[in-house]
Design a protein that fits this description.
The complex is a heterotetramer, with two copies of chain A (517 residues) and two copies of chain B (449 residues). Chain A is an alpha/beta fold. Helices cover 36% and strands 9% of the residues of chain A. A seven-stranded mixed β-sheet of chain A has the order 1-7-6-5-4-2-3, with helices on both faces. In chain A, helix 12 crosses helix 15. Chain A starts with a helix and ends in a 9-residue tail after the last helix. Chain B is 40% helix and 14% strand. Chain B has 16 helices and 14 strands. In chain B, the strands form four sheets. In chain B, strands 2-8-7-6-5-3-4 form a seven-stranded mixed β-sheet, with helices on both faces. In chain B, strand 3, helix 9 and strand 4 form a beta-alpha-beta unit. Classes of the chains: A alpha/beta (517), B alpha/beta (449). At the A-C interface, helix 1 and helix 3 of A face helix 1 and helix 3 of C. Bound molecules: pyridoxal-5'-phosphate (2 copies). The site of one pyridoxal-5'-phosphate has 14 residues of chain C, from helix 7.
């Protein structure tokens, strides 16, 4: 790996040294690199009456418009794009090159599990018999799709230690809402309307937001100085108004909640439920199952642990697993079998109903199933162990400069902090931006909120030791830069098309769409 | 394992750095009784060839369905998807990046979403659109919640019965915790298949929060949105339009033009496969005045230090990771890549192409209806329709089975969702159908009916 | 198109002005942009015993090696790559981003017809029933593939005005060899072994090379000062040893050979053949057919006129069209029909035999057929006319600075020259390299050889006027730079990962493969 | 037309700049009688949906073949192709660039090809490899021409009859103009299925130019390459090995190690679909001493002005665009993208994976042979084989038809190419076959035979 190291060194050249790739004739202005030129909006590239994709041989049908008549039809789509197919392709290909991406570089975004996404999984989802299957297809003609979903439910149940899984929710947050509505139905069925959900101060923002949507008051529970929740504290806050406790395990500090079982016990004593946010399940495969921890409800982010591509922000999928006592409340339809065939069961009187159309983000389910088949029992167990190894390796290598926010052992991610703001006035955001100059996507920053200037690093198991070493070298480099020449860091990035994007301006005067001149 | 780079030597060296004796040593702090029970009980890993083979075998069991002539719609629509859409959305840079928090490293996604937002405002005739929602149903539910934030004092949500069952269910579920809100179902006019205007008028009072109507609706009927909005506004309520067949917006008057305050819908028709119901892409647009109550992400235009125009996520103060329980929604991961697909699709078809395709869909649907009429089967409703229409059959079950035997998926039976229409099926037509499909369908149905 | 123009202006800022994208704190060394970092070789990224793609669950089979025994088996593949799948993907994705490409930018490589390649065509070629069809499949099970080939043959015959087409050759040059061997067989069948082939001084290098391979002496025929071949000159050189004349029409100056018909007549008087190099067919669709010009043989580069992707240098396809009197000599097998079914006819005693395996580059044939279906008679005819319009537009806009090498009207491409070497010591190569700074791929340079410092520009019909205007602006800009600040041009490119690649060194000390240290 | 950006306004404006009245005005100088006859007589253009539909309809007619259990090989081989190969080769940057003349703008292709050249040298055990040839057959022909340039005084080319018929035909055709050269066919040993060594010895004299042998050969038999090379060298001639199943080179001793002077072959097995015979990718490797006589492109390592390592095309002085009629070959466009596919494929399988796959192929082929033996059908030849072997059947035609009826493509009948083996068929096995394929084949053949 001499080669790979060479990279990190090349980048990390002393800030005094004249970078050797500068042309000798420094006199010349260096024009902006073509790949750094601003890209016009698709609307600005439009030319009146230019045509892109066409119907059969550019056949234009006015008849449809005539059938409906002018009263119902709009006159025109003024401002809509008018480009040839080649120009549309060129536009979006150019745009694509303005993204950092997991497939191209290290992307240790904490809490997001940016692991390798096998392209086979995308091909499987695109099979005509899967991608072309209409959701209203009669069940007896869609047995393959239903079978796939049933197998995925079973695999997820076994992996999480839950009794039943619903593939319905579109993402983690919808899974949370689903789970909390299940809790609500559970309590209502017992004739009580509980009002509170306990949520740790380290929780992801979706947790309180989901609790609120589900009609609960989010009561914050403090994690202790070591970064975890104490059963005693839970007991202190527990009363008969508490419907559930929502806890992420390992939590957003990357710490496995050591008292999770006694916390579950405490909750169950009061018939309150343990909601386990499974966004960090990548730390637990074959190591500890939410079900065994005492969780009544868990949501699973397939786009994290089960490697469905993040797509620049989705789509994902957020299946929910529950224990037996909550199964009857799961969203409709459920997949059930009759006479050896699968069918969609809508006859579920206790169900919370639906949160979205149809049966879940099927295309994502196919990818997750393919991923589970590929890793299997051995691969999944190994994946979590290596994810943990990677996180602890990075934490250890950086500890002198970027100490861990907690003394506890890290699981799949580590949350680090630093004193550069005090020592050099360099902020976490500035460190993150400087990382971009090294071709590395920054970790999640300023989260969890309890850690000042947090750097939340989740390498994932698919990154090699060499890649981690390059990251460590870059972080060490930035640390010394911050002390030697803070402005160098504060002005970063220096090597991208943009630098210091004015986000305040965007919020102050929102421009949310293009307007024709 | 081919995705895991670690060699035994790597592991040993890294463990030494970490100061652990073994991989299991790293998890020794996890309670033993948990570890003991955690062994995963599924098959061991497979090679890529075996994975591909086993999924292909499952897919094979759906084969007949995808090879049949189809008239299925009812919320998800069969349309031709240009190859360019697949080719762009499969670019690793788009597919394997995440939420564009770091603007300098995410301009590709950010600009594409800004273009998506613009396209949605153009289609809906409203001023602001967000970066995407999960789907049409959840977008409709979020729209009602948004209306609730805009007019917290009002309590009645009028949901048209001609809204897709999934949309109605999602609204009920999302609102189930809001005890103050009452969801009332608006009946439809048995002749036209559109909202019963009188019933709406009866509801239109000071406590009416909003009206939600399909445009076009579940029966393919183009609702009189202007009238509905007028009545709602008359009562000081909000008009929300929901569109499942977004292609219609390429030809019909925009919801905004007709007075809708919030327009939501499903963008699956714009370059996304039906893939057994998801992922599609929800969209939401509204008036500038209600911007701060809008759920979901927003991409805004700005500039960098050198004055270069660029884009970034903005108004995050509405969102959960900052606002937490006071956020406008809990949505985090959205359907960004699907929004990109829609953006590419709409850019390819363009100003004229989208209108032409919508018009062709209308034309073909009406040709189909006409052909069925020659077989004595006439539309159940008199309201104008886009590319779907309802027919009544003496024996729908037998008809659907007969059609299936002839390689035709005749349509969606309405009985299960509409007790009052036990003998009706919904026929959906698109550019993927051709005239002789209509003849074959008519012949089969005529035979049985 | 304000947007797009903005680009060209942004690039074309006066060389004196301080480029505004430079960070204010000029004091800092700007590290090499990540996307400009050298990429290690796949071998340098290897780590001993790391595994990529695996057989069933990493199953390793030693049995096979044992069956054959140590006498037959090698001990190891020392030095072979050892990477995980994610790292292999990352490597090649990174490499891909180091290429200019037609899909991303203007690529007016003269004589290469770098037009838009519809991605649908690649999808069609990848259909399992086409990509998965084994060439030894019994004919009655491969009727779809044979039918597609027959239809393509017919379309090409009609487009070129020839009587029969063979899809056999792998590329244009193999098509040339094929065509000349047909000529050879033709003459041998008539009991004479002719020895010479006349080839214009403007011809592409493959023509003389193919003539030599076919056993002919290549005799150069001068084009006249206006850039075309005169029938009189052909007559002068004609004797009974001349087997054929090989001419490209339009020729490599982009000029339609005005005397082509009388040249054909002259040749035919002596029973010599007219071989028409169809590499420039993109200028002729629906305008003039080689067959009507009197051509006996023509090769068609499907990767040019018919838009099969160039793939960084291939694969292509070079079908050959002939008149009736040469049909019997075409390569085997021919596709023939019997009882309403297609079969492969190997029983062709007069055939020249084979130049490659099987039936041609089928995957490319599918793409070309899809392209022909998409454009159809109307689209093809329009394509050539617009290709001609684009070439003449560029020529006209640049004529003051970069005059055309010929007074004749240009067809699909124009060949320009300049006086910058004399006036400023700036060479065509340096102009080409400077174009890279504008994100434009340079035209073909120094070809045809008859034009000093030639710039051979083929825009193709799929480029918009706005793109041509940007190119013109860049060329004008470079022209003034060359006069005002020649060193700026000579030092180009300034904005790419590399500058002034030492090609002489590569030839002086060839390093053609990586060696383990 | 969707690929053509020009609007009527563009055309008018551009014509004005050019000073032409109309598009046809631009071609007025083309003789009228040519223009009059040039109208293209094919159907007018189709929309993408229609293009896709009509090609899908053609593809459908091959459907049975691709769904059958197959034992077809004989020069082109069925292997599993990892999805990553398709994903990389479909990158627009690789697919839509051309020959990397501008090194600064082509490092992606140049470095990948440099890696390809290295992989080929590692597989062949020779020092230099080129950037690719069209295919194995033309590469074999070019190898003989190269040998001729290396030893112009010699005249006899000994081509093994166990070389694939296409390879032999290509050699004859490429050489047909070289009157000085005589192509002699080397018979094979009727027992072993390998080159008849005595026949070779008889040919080994001062005028022997080279020997071309398959490794493995058309019958799947692993030729005694060392012996062949020794005999050739003894006569001062060159030994050329040709390999159609390149996977074999992952396990067998390399041609270079066994004495081959030039090794050529077909790389289709390395990640390229069989796609009815092309494009595959030819490869060629030789010893450094013969570098200047090598045909085709070469990528070399160098550095730029700043000392950064990089790659460029080199030794172009051998090539047609500079050397013209004195070039080492006329090849220009080669099979670059296919070479990239092979590079990705080999990088994915890697040092151990390629060997394992080759070993698995040997294992399965021998399992198949063993299974057939239990049905009384034994290999026709005694020579060691890789993943193909020849069997003799009493009634091959009937057997093949019977197999087809049972959904099996039993193999390639040798009769048409080898008069002396009228009753033989060639069975090819790969990782795509599994043990019960063997059982089914054995049962069918046993029944008929
Ligand atoms: C801990 C945690 N919980 C919940 C979520 C929400 O999941 P999603 O983004 O899929 O809605 C996230 C995603 O970032 C998370 O990190
Ligand atoms: C005029 C001309 N003839 C022949 C050829 C050779 O075609 P190919 O590269 O497909 O072998 C070319 C390709 O550049 C060419 O431009």
């Amino acid at each position: 790996m001499a080669g790979a190291r060479k990279i990190s060194l090349a980048v990390a050249k002393p800030s005094t040294e004249q970078p050797k790739e500068e042309p000798p004739h420094g006199s010349h202005p260096i024009p902006r690199a073509p790949e750094h030129e601003p890209i016009p909006l698709i609307f600005e590239l439009s030319v009146r009456s230019r045509r892109g994709a066409n119907l059969a041989a550019d056949r234009t049908s006015q008849r449809g418009a005539d059938i409906l008549g002018a009263k119902l039809c709009r006159t025109d789509l003024a401002g809509f794009p008018e480009l040839s197919e080649p120009d549309v392709m060129r536009h979006f290909l150019k745009l694509s090159r303005r993204n950092f991406a997991q497939a191209l570089q290290f992307y240790p975004l904490g809490s997001c599990t940016m692991k390798y996404n096998p392209v086979l999984n995308d091909e499987m989802a695109a099979l005509p018999e899967l991608a072309g299957l209409h959701p209203r297809t009669p069940e007896h003609l869609a047995q393959g799709a239903l079978e796939l979903m049933v197998r995925l439910e079973a695999a997820l149940a076994s992996i999480t230690g839950m009794d039943a899984v619903s593939l319905h929710p579109a993402a983690g947050a919808q899974g949370e809402l689903c789970g909390l509505l299940l809790a609500r139905s559970y309590h209502l069925a017992k004739g009580r309307a509980r009002t509170k959900v306990l949520i740790p101060d380290t929780a992801h923002g979706t947790n309180p937001a989901s609790a609120h949507l589900a009609g609960y008051k989010a009561v914050t529970i403090r994690s202790n100085p070591r970064g975890f929740i104490e059963a005693a504290e839970v007991r202190r806050l527990l009363d008969d108004d508490v419907a559930a406790l929502m806890v992420t395990n390992p939590n957003t500090l990357g710490v496995f909640e050591p008292e999770i079982q006694s916390i579950a016990a405490a909750l169950h004593e009061r018939d309150a439920l343990l909601y386990l946010d499974g966004a960090n399940l990548n730390a637990l495969l074959g190591i500890a199952r939410p079900g065994d921890m005492g969780a009544d409800i868990v949501q699973i982010n397939l786009h994290k642990t089960f490697s469905t591509p993040h797509g620049g922000g989705g789509p994902g999928a957020g299946p929910v697993g529950v224990k037996r006592h909550l199964e009857s409340f799961l969203p409709t339809p459920r997949i059930a079998s009759r006479a050896g065939a699968w069918y969609l069961d809508y006859d579920r009187p206790a169900s919370i109903g639906r949160l979205r159309s149809f049966y879940g983000n099927f295309g994502m389910l196919v990818r997750a199933y393919a991923y589970i088949l590929a890793l299997g029992s051995d691969g999944l167990a190994r994946a979590s162990r290596l994810a943990i190894l990677n996180a602890n390796y990075v934490r250890k290598r950086l500890e002198d400069r970027f100490p861990s926010a907690t003394p506890e052992r890290s699981m799949h991610e580590c949350v680090l902090t630093h004193d550069l703001d005090k020592r050099a006035g360099v902020s976490t955001l500035e460190i993150a931006k400087r990382l971009l100059d090294f071709g590395i996507h920054p970790p999640t920053i300023y989260f969890p909120l309890v850690v000042p200037g947090a750097l939340m690093i989740e390498p994932t198991e698919t990154e090699s030791r060499e890649t981690l070493d390059e990251f460590v070298a870059a972080m060490e480099r930035i640390y010394s830069e911050a002390l030697a020449d803070p402005q160098l860091v504060k002005d970063a990035p220096h090597t991208l098309a943009l630098s210091h994007v004015d986000e305040a301006e965007a919020a102050r005067h929102p421009i949310l769409s293009w307007q024709p001149k | 394992m081919r995705f895991l780079p670690h060699t035994e030597a790597d592991i040993a060296a890294m463990l030494e750095v970490v100061g652990a004796a073994s991989l299991d040593d790293l998890i020794a702090h996890v309670p033993a009784e948990l570890r003991d029970r955690a062994a995963i009980r599924i098959a061991p890993g497979l090679g890529e060839q075996q994975v591909a083979a086993s999924i292909a075998a499952l897919a094979e069991r759906n084969r007949d369905a995808v090879r049949m002539t189809s008239f299925l719609g009812a919320g998800y629509y069969r349309h031709y998807i240009p190859a360019a859409v697949r080719s762009i959305t499969s670019r690793a840079e788009f597919a394997t990046s995440y939420t564009p928090y770091q603007a300098e490293a995410s301009q590709g996604t950010l600009q594409a979403i800004f273009e998506f937002q613009t396209l949605i405002t153009q289609l809906t005739g409203l001023e602001v659109a967000n970066a995407s929602m999960y789907d049409g149903a959840s977008a409709a539910a979020e729209a009602v919640l948004m209306a609730h934030r805009l007019a917290p004092a009002r309590s009645i949500v009028a949901v048209s019965r001609t809204l897709w069952p999934d949309y109605r269910a999602a609204i009920r579920t999302y609102l189930s915790a809001l005890r103050s809100i009452e969801v009332v179902e608006l009946p439809f006019d048995a002749t036209t298949g559109a909202v019963d205007i009188d019933a709406l008028k009866r509801l239109a009072g000071p406590s009416l929060l909003c009206v939600v109507a399909g445009y076009p609706n579940m029966f393919g009927v183009i609702e009189p949105l202007a009238t509905i909005a007028e009545i709602a506004h008359g009562a000081g309520a909000l008009a929300i339009s929901a569109t499942a067949e977004a292609l219609a917006l390429g030809l019909l008057k925009s919801p905004g033009e007709l007075g809708a305050d919030i327009a939501v819908g499903e963008g699956q028709s714009f370059g996304l496969p039906v893939q057994f119901g998801g992922p599609g892409v929800g969209f939401m647009a509204a008036r500038t005045g209600s911007l701060r109550q809008m759920p979901g992400r927003l991409v805004g235009q700005t500039h960098d230090r050198n004055g270069t125009r660029c884009f970034c996520l903005t108004l995050a103060t509405r969102e959960q990771h900052i606002r937490r329980e006071r956020a406008t929604s809990n949505i985090c991961t959205n359907h960004s890549l699907c929004a990109l697909a829609a953006t590419v699709y709409l850019s390819l078809l363009g100003r004229q192409g989208l209108r032409d395709l919508a018009s062709l869909n209308v034309e073909l649907a009406h040709d189909a209806a006409a052909r069925l009429a020659t077989a004595g089967i006439t539309p159940r409703f008199s309201g104008p329709f886009f590319n779907e229409f309802v027919i009544r059959l003496s024996n729908p079950v037998a008809c659907i089975q007969a059609a299936e035997r002839n390689g035709i998926l005749a349509g969606v039976p309405l009985g299960p969702d509409y007790r009052e229409l036990p003998d009706c099926i919904l026929i959906s037509v698109s550019e993927l159908n051709n005239p002789d499909d209509f003849a074959r369908l008519a012949d089969v149905l005529a035979e049985v009916a």
